[in-house]
Amino acid sequence: MKSFKRHLTALAVSAALMPTAAVQAGEVEVLHWWTAGGEARAAAALKKMMEEQGHTWKDFAVAGGGGEAAMTVLKTRAVSGNPPAAAQIKGLDIREWAELGFLTSLDSVADAENWDQLIPPMISDVMKYEGEYVAVPVNVHRVNWLWVNPEVMKDVGVEVPTTLDEFFDVADKLKAEGYIPLAHGGQPWQDATVFDAVALAELGPDDYRKAFVDHDMDVINSAKMEDVFAQFAKVMSYVDDDAAGRDWNTATGMVIRGEAAMQIMGDWAKGEFTAAGLTPGEDYVCAPAPGTTGQFTFNVDSFAMFTLSEEEDIKAQKDLARTILEPEFQTLFNQNKGSIPVRTDMDMSDFDTCAQASMNTFKSSADDGGLVPSFSHGLATTSYIQGQIFDVVTNFVNSNNPDPAKTTDQLAAAIQSAM
Amino acid sequence: MEHTQRRPAGVARASSGLMDGLQRWLPKLVVAPTFLLVGIGIYGYMLWTGVLSFTNSSFLPSYNFVGLEQYAKLMESERWIVASWNLAIFGGLFIGICLLIGVVLAIFLDQRIRQEGAIRTIYLYPMALSMIVTGTVWRWILNPRLGLEKLMHDWGWTSFSFDWLVNSDFAIYTIVMAAVWQASGFVMALFLAGLRGVDSSIIRAARVDGASLPVIYWKIILPSLRPVFFSSVMVLAHIAIKSFDLVMAMTAGGPGYSTDLPAVFMYAHTFTRGQMGLGSASAMLMLGAILALLVPYLYSELREKRHD
């Protein structure tokens, strides 16, 4: 009986204390698919930072490549009126969700924290809907990278190519020595990633934007686009015959082992080199994709914020948005993920040389117009048009007698039908 | 006396009325949940998909009706045409080869050979595997750097080349191979059961008349197995039309989209591309294809019943 009373007192005391402890504590539920390796560590860090601010973090991690499974769950939750506070949604999909009225404005945080000054306008435009922030960018990936095994290059006696012509020259020499010049995986998004880089090299940033952001038919259905397809076919001819269906990291493994010399892939490939214990600049080289020096194709991960009803939860959601853009999280997260911070005012001394180079190009290209959104990763166009372009590109790659002129017509027709 | 006799009878009548009622209602009550689930889960959603196919639904359903626009888009889509052709190639070859191998194996096994049980199990076993396993195993076997081609090269036959899996013109045939491997044992089992059911006195009578064994099979036994052919074709046809997991595991629709089947097309557009309207339209066309097979079958079945 005595012990029962003591329990009762304890309960009463804790009940009395509860409200004071929870006065500002909201719950923030975050849908993400950072479930493995460095990404999982980064997510855990964000959780810890939120808990230090007195909020509860409800993890809503749905594993599964590229978040397809997660999006299905999210749709169900959103339609039934019970969305999470934040979900990993990127690119033009943010606008689609906002149009349906699911997203909330973050302008109070954005104004207080001066986001417009911190984030380049090219990127903040993607995060806004009708002039208001509805999503927070987490990181910036550069897509137009060329990953090189310097041992192989030294063995053949060639330099890292900086233009497409140099690339063809180098690739011929590599092929003659029995190396696979270009490591690649024959999956539609990887085909598109290489096409992305070749298109930027051939068209230049202005026409790239016209073609893939504005869908200007004068550029899409032009002789220039035929050249892009012709050059693309030539680049792809240096891929080995067994690439069909290969995963991107298997292709990166071929570069690491020295079977292949180069790979065109975004900077998430760095994670594979790091995991193999290699040092950038020494054991492997990161260079801009041939012909795109000084230009930057960006791919930005972001969290879109959903409209919530509870006052505390909204507070927690705003704190989450602020925390994501704070330098501490930006450094920690991006070091783990291989990308660079989205803020241009960060100290990059703790990052590796590839990330530093990436940041320098990011800043300079933001000023001179060389910064373009990557269509192959959903930053330039809607998922329908992107899907249509993927179909045309991958069909071209896998065709036994690729015809650039015919494919250009197909591309124009495909984009038109999806607009 | 009369009184006492009548009363129990009245009670019995009342309780039997209750029992009758229960007996009438109980089966209906028991199957009601199933019917409800089937009604909503299958026919309800079928209807909903039909409705969505007339809307411009993107990644969430919307009810903005656009008439037959999605169907028109589908007909113009080269990828859909490739997927439909693939289904024709895949379905035709898959059903044809499965039937051929199944019948031949069943006839061989029907010759009262030794260890028949063990052999039958071996042939039937692939059916026990999931399509995902079959697809993965065949992907490894047919991958030029990993499987058959590498094995032949390692054994010294360096000119051997078998790259169908990574060749966009031939990849669809590798899917046929894997599917045939999986399903022909099942067809064999169906025919074996049918063969065992054939009256042996007919065969003996034919023997007496001097017919050779192939002639007996060709002219007498196989024609009498028409119902088995029918049900085999039905089972194989619906496996072919709904094929999804095998393609996803083996090629994921690649190289490019050269091994796309309608089911793969539907999934990609509805769930990953945010074109739910177009995906629904393709689903309705698949339903149409199945109905085109099913309706004549049901019609002939029901007509025969009435005939009896």
Automatic annotation (TrEMBL), chain A:
Q: Where in the cell is it found?
A: Periplasm
The answer to whether keyword Transport applies is yes
UniProt xrefs under InterPro entries: Bact_solute-bd_prot1, SBP
Q: Where this protein primarily resides, as one coarse class?
A: periplasm
Q: Which organism is it from?
A: Marinobacter algicola DG893
Q: What is this protein called?
A: Probable sugar-binding periplasmic protein
What is the recorded function of this protein according to its Swiss-Prot or TrEMBL entry? Part of a binding-protein-dependent transport system for a sugar.
Leader sequence range is 1-25
Q: One Pfam family for this entry, by name?
A: SBP_bac_1
Give Gene Ontology CC terms: periplasmic space
UniProt keywords (A-Z) are: Signal, Sugar transport, Transport
Family according to the record: Belongs to the bacterial solute-binding protein 1 family.
TrEMBL record, chain B:
Cite the ABC transmembrane type-1 domain residue spans from the record.
84-299
Report what the protein is called: ABC-type sugar transport system, permease component
Q: Which SUPFAM superfamilies match?
A: MetI-like
Mind telling me which InterPro entries this protein's record contains?
ABC_transporter_permease (IPR051393), MetI-like (IPR000515), MetI-like_sf (IPR035906)
Against Gene3D superfamilies, the record matches this protein to: MetI-like
Q: Name one GO biological process term.
A: transmembrane transport
Locations listed in the record: Cell membrane
Highest taxon in the source lineage: Bacteria
UniProtKB keywords: Cell membrane, Membrane, Sugar transport, Transmembrane, Transmembrane helix, Transport
Membrane-spanning segments: 29-48, 85-109, 121-141, 170-195, 216-241, 276-299
Would you identify the family this protein belongs to, as annotated?
A: Belongs to the binding-protein-dependent transport system permease family.
One Gene Ontology CC term in the entry: plasma membrane
Q: Which residues form a coiled coil?
A: none
